[in-house]
Write a structure and sequence with these properties.
single chain; mainly alpha; 3-stranded antiparallel sheet; 14 helices
Amino acid sequence: MKKLLMNTDKLLLIVTIIMFIAGLIMVFSASNVTAYMSYAASPYNYFIKQGLVLIVGLFVFLFMINFSTKSYGFFSWILLIIFTASLVILLIYGTAKNKAISWFDFGFFSLQPSEFIKVITIVFLATYYDRNQKKLNSWTKSLFPIGICIMIAGLIFLQPDLGTTIIYGLIVLIIFLAVPIAGEIKYKTFFAGVGFVVVAAIAMFGAGKGVLLERQMERFDFKNPCEKILSNGSQVCNCYIAINNGGLTGVGLGNSTQKYLYLPEAYTDFIFAIIVEELGVITGIILILAYIFVIFRILLIGRRCPNNRGAVICYGVAFYIFLHVAVNLLGIMGLMPMTGVPLPFMSYGGSFTLCLIAALSLVQRVNIENNLMKEN
């Protein structure tokens, strides 16, 4: 174990640990009012749960770095089948949360299969295209896993969870473009896919409520949110208020006013607004720079990888983190619709946090294999 830890990317490991700890502190600060009002006058409910998830995540990390990325490729098939089946079961027996049936409720904790399937798909695609790299001039071999991913995206869309569907689809797309598939197959498929998406989008918006729910349609009306503060603009407008309250240096840790139920579940999707309100725009900029650093380190590990499997895992994880950061922040800034996407390292959420830790563990395992290969 000591040798494995010595071969991890220490800078990446240290920065991510600091970000998880900072996120835990901010979860407590952003959630204590809601927790106090909802859980028998205890302000520590979400803090304790998130802390337990991080402890479990530590053991997940220490466990995962012991196994090669090749072995994860084998298990990815099994896990993909299990979690795809769980998406089907979810549509029948799942628990509705925020008007989407995305969760299995087990009492003390809830499980969101669509979060896990993002990371599983990254490993599945990386392994599949690495094993079949000499056969990727075949349409069947090249597009077989994409067909499976389209089916999974459809199941997520039916929950309905448009935001997760879009992120999942974009992760699959970037991996498809990154792997060494024959140019004719890649570009014909890409342009055909773009055409299909455009036609499907026109059809969905044309059909309106027939395909998209009313709340989903409302999210596309995201401009000038403060003019609609009494309806669908209240969340983003309150984000603006929080950011404006914070100024450069913030009102102080724990002193946010917008967490007093102005922002619903301020400790999840809207936690960046609370961070800026309490700690200031300067801290917000530092956090964004930290995200850039993490993504850069992951891409660097992928670039150094001597095989496609490790490289695609790193590129997939980097894009996975980038998408969540970009979609969350753009939604908070009112530059795109809010989609309920958590902010990596900062937002409360067991499923997403465990998936993020698992994804980072895979990257560290790739770095370990890179270093061990150099030694040999």
